[in-house]
Task: structure prediction
Amino acid sequence: GIVNGMDVSEWDPAKDKFLAANYDITTALEGKALNKEALQAEVGLPVDRKVPLVAFIGRLEEQKGPDLMIAAIPEILKDEDVQIVLLGTGKKKFERLLKSVEEKFPGKVRAVVRFNAPLAHQMMAGADVLAV
Result:
């Protein structure tokens, strides 16, 4: 089977080759902010350090909860100034729903419905909140 978890060497923000800016415990605040700006620019969201950025990375299958995330987005955006980036592939119905949410909330939501390992690393490094 596939062991859950992550390779701490590959995902170490001090050495991760996919990040816009590497950082460690002493430079984490600025490093996270720089990666957030790079992520916002890469996916076409307005670059703004002050706006909370939520990231969802996962297979688009029922057991991973994309339907819950999709249902929550309008509620989250109704009362909050937030940006949301979603990355994943899977069932076509979820891929279509993600793209429709992106169309409904331009400038707030980006849905990337393809496999993109470098973007996943950048999302982990730049997001303020990870939706799991």
